[in-house]
From TrEMBL:
Signal peptide: none annotated. This is J domain-containing protein. InterPro entries: DnaJ_C_subfamily_28, DnaJ_domain, DnaJ_homolog_subfam-C_membr-28, J_dom_sf. Residues 2-69 form the J domain. The lineage of its organism: Eukaryota, Metazoa, Ecdysozoa, Arthropoda, Hexapoda. Pfam families: DJC28_CD (PF09350), DnaJ (PF00226). SUPFAM superfamilies: Chaperone J-domain. PANTHER family: DNAJ HOMOLOG SUBFAMILY C MEMBER 28, OS08G0560600 PROTEIN. It comes from the Eukaryota.
Length: 293
């Protein structure tokens, strides 16, 4: 081999021998060595040969075996890349771009499937010596057909299943389809499922019961204020009546604060923004009652 010959070693030499030979040669051949045999061209040849052999030894350590002899090109099918290899796909059916060929291949497959289904049905429909045939049974099952491809096959299979009664005892038969769009987009999925499970088991979500409690508490507070306001008579109120009315409002302030805390909690857990409530104001409620009386 040329690389071994340039380094002056035989082909059975190991990596250490090759390295020592390379170092000996480069000391003499390097252009700056001042040796009589110094040559830049020979130095490049020796350096290239050493690099090739180093790569060979590295591949040998990794278990990669290669032949460094000059390859002789043999122009046969073994060494020539097969042309038009893309036509080996889709069973060689069709022409044009890959997308067009795929569509043509699917059409051919559908036609073959239809032929096989037809042959299978004809073999099943053939009467044997012991078979009892009723007039019109076969054509009654196959009277509804479409014209092309998968639609025809699917429609025929559906009609056969209907005639056998496969669709008679389906769950949800005669009932409306479940509404999968009923979930509020502003509520996370976990909260929605928890509310649904609670409703299915007869429980009421917390925000609904809390809303009811708030309404009852507000109505009770308004009823108490209405009863107290009725004792004072119509507007305008005297100074003494104004003072009495302010005193009664202060007495109800604790109840109003309790209701407002319930409203704050309700606004945090209610799933819809438009269901949130405004805090109760005793002054506003008192003014409304004064106008009504």
């Amino acid at each position: 081999m040329k690389c071994y010959r340039l380094l002056g070693v035989n082909e059975q030499s190991d990596q250490n021998t090759v390295r020592q030979a390379y170092l000996t040669l480069v000391k003499k051949l390097h252009p700056d060595s001042g040796h009589p045999e110094a040559s830049a061209e020979r130095f490049q040849e020796v350096d290239s040969a050493f690099r090739i052999l180093q790569e060979k030894f590295a591949k040998a350590r990794r278990g990669i075996v290669e032949d460094l002899r000059e390859e002789v090109k043999v122009y046969d099918i073994k060494h020539t890349a097969p042309q038009h290899r893309q036509y080996l796909s889709f069973d060689g059916i069709g022409y044009g771009t890959p997308a067009q060929r795929q569509k043509q291949y699917q059409t051919v497959r559908a036609a073959k499937a239809q032929e096989r289904v037809l042959e299978h049905r004809l073999s099943k429909a053939q009467a044997t010596e012991t078979a009892v045939m009723k007039k019109g049974d076969y054509f009654k099952k196959h009277e509804i057909k479409t014209k092309y491809g998968y639609d025809r096959v699917v429609e025929d299979l559906i009609q056969e299943a209907i005639s056998r009664g496969d669709f008679s005892n389906l769950s949800g038969f005669g009932k409306p389809l479940p509404d999968h769009q009923s979930q509020n987009p502003y509520v996370d999925f976990t909260t929605h499922k928890m509310n649904k499970i609670m409703l299915d088991n007869g429980f009421t979500p917390e925000w609904i019961t809390l809303h009811k409690d708030i309404r009852q508490a507000v109505d009770a507070l308004k009823e108490d204020l209405r009863r107290l306001r009725a004792k004072l008579g119509p507007l305008p109120l005297s100074v003494r009546e104004e003072q009495q009315w302010e005193k009664w409002l202060e007495q109800q302030q604790e109840e109003a604060t309790k209701i407002n805390k319930m409203i704050d909690k309700f606004n945090l857990i209610v799933p819809m923004m438009n269901k949130q409530m405004v805090q109760l104001s005793l002054e506003r409620v008192g003014n409304e009652l004064s106008v009504l009386l």
